[in-house]
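Margin note from the TA: students keep mixing up input and output lines. Inputs are the sequences; the output is the structure of the whole complex. Example:
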Amino acid sequence: MGSGIYNAHEMKALAKRSAREGLELVEAETPRPGPGEVLIKVAAASVCGTDLHIYSWDEWSRSRIAIPRIIGHEFCGYVEEIGPGVEEVAPGDYVSAETHIYCGRCYMCRTGRAHLCEEVKIVGVDRDGAFAEYIVLPEKVVWKNDPSLPIRVAPLQEPFGNAVHAVRRAGVGGKRVAIFGDGPIGIFACALARKFGAKSVWLIGLSTARLEIGKKLGADEIINASTQNPVAEVRRLSGGRRADVVLEMSGATTAWANALFAVRPGGRVIAFGLSRGQIPWDLNTVVFNEIEVIGVVGRLIFETWYETQELLTELDISPAITDELPLEDFEVGFQKLFRREAVKVVLYP
Amino acid sequence: MGSGIYNAHEMKALAKRSAREGLELVEAETPRPGPGEVLIKVAAASVCGTDLHIYSWDEWSRSRIAIPRIIGHEFCGYVEEIGPGVEEVAPGDYVSAETHIYCGRCYMCRTGRAHLCEEVKIVGVDRDGAFAEYIVLPEKVVWKNDPSLPIRVAPLQEPFGNAVHAVRRAGVGGKRVAIFGDGPIGIFACALARKFGAKSVWLIGLSTARLEIGKKLGADEIINASTQNPVAEVRRLSGGRRADVVLEMSGATTAWANALFAVRPGGRVIAFGLSRGQIPWDLNTVVFNEIEVIGVVGRLIFETWYETQELLTELDISPAITDELPLEDFEVGFQKLFRREAVKVVLYP
Amino acid sequence: MGSGIYNAHEMKALAKRSAREGLELVEAETPRPGPGEVLIKVAAASVCGTDLHIYSWDEWSRSRIAIPRIIGHEFCGYVEEIGPGVEEVAPGDYVSAETHIYCGRCYMCRTGRAHLCEEVKIVGVDRDGAFAEYIVLPEKVVWKNDPSLPIRVAPLQEPFGNAVHAVRRAGVGGKRVAIFGDGPIGIFACALARKFGAKSVWLIGLSTARLEIGKKLGADEIINASTQNPVAEVRRLSGGRRADVVLEMSGATTAWANALFAVRPGGRVIAFGLSRGQIPWDLNTVVFNEIEVIGVVGRLIFETWYETQELLTELDISPAITDELPLEDFEVGFQKLFRREAVKVVLYP
Amino acid sequence: MGSGIYNAHEMKALAKRSAREGLELVEAETPRPGPGEVLIKVAAASVCGTDLHIYSWDEWSRSRIAIPRIIGHEFCGYVEEIGPGVEEVAPGDYVSAETHIYCGRCYMCRTGRAHLCEEVKIVGVDRDGAFAEYIVLPEKVVWKNDPSLPIRVAPLQEPFGNAVHAVRRAGVGGKRVAIFGDGPIGIFACALARKFGAKSVWLIGLSTARLEIGKKLGADEIINASTQNPVAEVRRLSGGRRADVVLEMSGATTAWANALFAVRPGGRVIAFGLSRGQIPWDLNTVVFNEIEVIGVVGRLIFETWYETQELLTELDISPAITDELPLEDFEVGFQKLFRREAVKVVLYP
């Protein structure tokens, strides 16, 4: 994909075209499905933090993205056409997709951990993405949506799935749970920790507006780290016992400085947020308190998708959708996200 | 304990008497067992890294040790006298002891994790220790030794138990195991990883002499980090797949810089070694590879002791005993340890 | 305990005095606390299935109970007097107690599994119990109640704790859960499965009245096994997929005949209900479907008590209390239980 | 497959041709690989208990096998030809195959448990098998063998993989392990329990010859259940503590009657052996002792294959090969197996 897509004038797409900040709305050639591939007409697509990184053209983006590249990977749509050999989906199917295109051949893939595939290609990063009228994907990552799932919510399955995977790995039932990070995943994690019977859910962040949405979705208490000391607050709220489980979903150095002191001996810390550069760690605290630090990435393929599908019949996560815009107005949404005024922005091509 | 022990001239002991480097051989009052306590005549005691810290009077020691203090906590001996209410041990019993005197009342103690007791007192640190002719301990930490266990080996149950706990938590059966740290625990871990069916055991350290002892006890390959690149070697030995399990038992910053890159996606890293200050961490590697970093400290009380007792009927760890000395010659042993020429030094009072 | 308690006329108690069906209200000598023991004035005590067995004087009771014996083990009360050496509780404390008096010395006790103690003594079975004005217990099993816990609910901590232990072992978050058995523990399990985020909770039983209480406490659907086929219903409700988790809390042969077919491949079955004699098992189903059958008994000491205490600040289980009676009217309560008209009967001495 | 294969005279095969006891050596049409399929020239194939059932034409066989059917599923060979779309194997590759042809589409397959596939087809049962000069299989179940693995051992990967999966699920490191069943899987389990550091390995069976092979491969003690009481022996050997782990690999009713009493409280029992009809269970023992009974079937696809491949570079299981015969002499091997004189019989077509 990606070769020569700007020659024709067949579809609208949002792409990184030049090695500098920003994105461009372009006319791109509508892709065609090859063997085992599926052409999907995109109905809605939401903006992820990864898209912000690519917009900013930060160090990671510069090292990873080959331009030109259509970006975006959280979406839903309808199957328009199938390539040869496609068996499980048919034109008209209402679908979304797993973002990690796993190889299926490596040790990880062959032992039930395809989300850790060593040859993974990421939609909207390593191949053209979903901020477009059409997208082509291999059948193996296409997921048939529950027909009752609203179009505006369906793109959120992918990031919500991140939170499902993280919260399930954390084990929150009956536990005191502290969540660092008031981005979408941290906010979704509040809803899930509440759903799975956490004794207490404390959301720690920097944006009052986002923290309030976290509270609406399930946090018992919100802690604004710009004015409060998260460790002191967690100790106070737990009667000195600290959290049984911490989910670190911000990647911030200051969050990590707090996270290891906010968890009780024998507790678990989920490492989900990505950081810039190295994080200084108080490793002796990990040792003396036998803390478990568990990295979590992506979603279990497809166990998390099944769970997500079922959870979304019970949980209403739509309060996290703060903005809905036509694809053309993407700039408005991106800027609100940069200013942390939005949580999830849904674009309609 | 510890108050006024230097007035009489009843027993020999090794103590920190002044707030400066070094230890002194002193005459101390023989302690008496109070209610629930046991007086033990020490037969042998081995030197731990903690004792080296106290000798050096480093920052940690200065903040933790109240002088005067008899040190030492790895030992064996014979019960000499029991205090009121002692029921399970009797004079003449051949015993060692768990070093962590747990409170039995806190949340950790009451939920089966006494080794994480929040009010723990450590033998030879927070109360007088075993580098002496006699020691008094609460009955609850006293462990009856297997009568067939040699006196020279029995003190090693405590540090060997550290390795048992760490290796069991790691899960090594059928796995490629990389161990960072050629101190006693790393060397013991080699024997245990071999015993529990690790596919491969690679020991990484800085001392040729110690690495060779590790090889004798169970390592398939030894990697001298002063001349070899541990990550490159682990990759080479595993055909590019890296280790399934890493045990970090050195606490060195450089070891940690390697540890996270020596483990495969979905692998486990045991954090056991204590570090000076903070360790810079490549957290994104933990996240992207879903690495599990598990802190391990002490021994499960008393599950690890049972296991240790049984394992020592099958494994010969005596090659780790490099030096045996009368208590009076402690200085020789300590200096060899500081120079990394010794592994375990056993002192006889 | 138990020797000569009927000589004096100091307190009222409910006892098995003769080797035949029934219980007797007797005058018994008020017990005195020995070293490490606590005298408790009983405020309320609830009736357990075990008490029904002893009343009936069935085969198990005949083989286990030494008469005369005061029975009853689910209770709360106030500390009246403490024996020598008692340190953690004081007169006036509002308490309940763990029913399993563990020895503290066996392998199970010393490795964090005191609830599986091989020398366990059970309150109201192996020593005098709580259907009396006073009871004496070792300090080590006494539990300080949350002051805000109502007296009528506090005795239920013990059976509710059974359900907490079972449901936690089951792992119900996001799962389809089928519970066989509409007794108190099955009903409590409904509340807990709901609390911990089960996707669906299906209660299977024989008593319409009890099933309705289960529905009130948390079951989504109730299945009356006297008129419906539980396996067919579970298949229908799950769209053919069956339950992810089954809790067998009846011990009935017919329930077991269904339980293994109501769970999906790779699913888990908690075995909690006690049966009369052997149960015919379709073992090939266990093998081919890799089912996990996990025995659960009692409560984790004291992890389950901590959890129970916290859960009861959030869950109202009082709808399970169907009857409250003075101790003298015990016969009314027992007969309603035998007729399955009651769930929990609380007696006030 | 299977339709019209007896019209031509292209290859030799061992088939069930009539609905009665016995097998017949037939001339069958050499199969051709369709899309995604692989034609393999069989080099060696070993006899499994399933083959004995089909030979005997027992109740299970009659209900499952459509005749005519070529049987056999443990084999190795060389790829002769590949069908369209086959990408990972090539003519000349030295291969074996997973016996469970999973669908890849069901919930189990899509959540990493393909060995529990709800639409599974079994080689040599549901489609033509490996007791033939050629076999055709879908590429997805073909496994590339280690080139150094001897042809006579390679067919044993499949049953040895059963033992690998079972022993890994059991967790045997440092444990006392009792294995019921002296068939091939029980014997392989001895080797694996030894390899993975079991403290003790006790093999229980009925055939002196087979028990002796178990001893050669790793059992510390063998117990002949025809003359000894297995529970009494296990208690004696463990000093009264019983086994920590039991692997039931016989399916015999008497074995199960013993298995639950041979395991300690909190212990684990692996249910692997298939039984005829229902097994009477002492369920209260499961409950009171919190025993875990874990069904195990097949192999993890392909995690177990990777492990098996590596283990066979270290373990020599060839003593389990008691007979090697040309395919034509199959009757000799089958009869020795029926008389329990053989362990593994390898046939060469």
